[in-house]
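Quiz preparation item.
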C-alpha cells in the first residue's frame, strides 16, 4: 500500500483522484477546507504548517506521494495565496518525508492559463517567495479591476517554480520526480459558473479551444496525475503536461 497525500480532495479533480487511488488500494490522506482527513486552510502559513504536521502524523513518517490539487479561480487575492504559496508550501513541507520513501513522487495542478497573459510583478513576487508583496500587488490589481490576471499569474508562477525546483538537488537529486498537469476546461464546481452565461462560455471557448473531445471530466485529469505519481514514472521531471484537449498546441502552434 502506498500512502498518498492529496490536497483539494473534497471536490473536482482532487476528489476524483482520491477516489481512484483508494479504489486501487492506496491509502489517501485528503487535505481540504472541510470533508477531508486533514482540514486546513492553505491560504495562510498557519494552515499550511498544520496541514503538513497532520499529514506527517497520519502517514507515520512514510509518505510515498503528494499531489497538490487545491486551488481557487476568480479575481480574489486567494488565487495567489492558495494556488502558488499554498501549493509550494505543501510540496516543500512534505518533501523531507518523501525523500525517505523508496519510490517517492509528487505532482501539482497548473493550468492552460499559465500560458495566458499574467501580471509579471505578481509572478516575480511569487518566485521570490515574497508572499506579503505578492498579496499587496494582488490587492492593488483587484482594486484596479485587473484581478482577472491573478489566476494566470498564480499558475504561471507555479509552473516556473516547478520547472526549476524539479531538477534541483532537493527533488530530482533526491530521486523525487516532480511534475504538473495543465488542464484546459474541466467539468468541476470550479468551472461551473463559466457555463451559466452564453457570452462567458463563448469567451472561454475562444480562450481555450479544445478540438480533442471537448471539455474534460475530472477523472481524465486524475488519470494523468495518477500516472505521474505512480512507480511507472521514473524519468519524467519538471514537465507541465497539458491535458487540455489540444488547447495549448492550438494556441501556441507547432514550435516547442
Ligand atoms: P474544485 O473547486 O472542484 O476543487 C478545488 C478544491 O480545493 C476544493 O475542494 C476546495 O475546497 C479546495 N481549496 C480551495 N481553497 C482552499 C484552501 N484555502 N485550503 C484548502 N483547500 C482549498 O476545482 P477543480 O476544478 O477540481 O480544481 C482543482 C485544480 O485544478 C485547481 O488547482 C485548479 O486551479 C485546477 N484547474 C482547474 C480547471 C477547471 O476547468 N476546473 C482548469 C485548469 C486547472
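Solution:
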Amino acid at each position: 500500500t502506498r500512502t498518498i497525500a492529496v490536497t483539494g480532495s473534497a471536490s473536482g479533480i482532487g476528489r476524483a483522484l482520491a477516489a481512484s487511488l483508494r479504489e486501487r488500494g492506496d491509502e489517501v490522506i485528503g487535505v481540504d477546507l472541510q470533508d477531508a482527513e486533514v482540514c486546513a486552510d492553505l491560504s495562510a502559513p498557519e494552515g499550511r504548517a498544520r496541514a503538513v504536521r497532520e499529514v506527517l502524523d497520519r502517514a507515520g513518517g512514510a509518505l510515498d506521494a503528494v499531489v497538490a490539487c487545491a486551488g481557487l479561480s476568480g479575481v480574489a487575492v486567494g488565487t495567489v495565496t492558495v494556488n502558488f504559496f499554498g501549493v509550494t508550501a505543501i510540496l516543500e513541507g512534505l518533501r523531507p518525508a518523501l525523500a525517505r520513501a523508496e519510490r517517492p513522487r509528487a505532482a501539482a495542478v497548473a493550468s492552460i492559463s499559465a500560458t495566458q497573459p499574467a501580471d509579471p510583478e505578481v509572478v516575480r513576487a511569487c518566485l521570490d517567495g515574497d508572499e506579503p508583496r505578492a498579496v499587496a500587488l494582488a490587492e492593488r490589481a483587484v482594486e484596479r479591476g485587473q484581478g482577472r490576471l491573478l489566476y494566470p499569474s498564480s499558475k504561471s508562477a507555479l509552473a516556473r517554480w516547478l520547472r526549476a525546483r524539479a531538477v534541483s538537488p532537493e527533488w530530482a537529486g533526491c530521486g523525487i520526480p516532480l511534475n504538473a498537469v495543465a488542464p484546459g476546461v474541466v467539468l468541476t464546481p470550479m468551472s461551473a459558473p463559466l457555463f451559466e452565461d452564453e457570452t462567458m462560455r463563448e469567451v472561454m471557448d475562444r480562450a481555450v479551444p479544445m478540438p480533442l473531445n471537448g471539455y474534460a471530466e475530472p477523472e481524465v485529469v486524475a488519470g494523468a496525475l495518477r500516472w505521474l505519481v505512480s512507480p511507472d514514472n521514473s524519468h519524467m521531471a519538471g514537465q507541465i503536461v497539458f491535458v487540455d484537449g489540444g488547447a495549448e498546441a492550438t494556441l501556441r502552434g507547432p514550435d516547442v
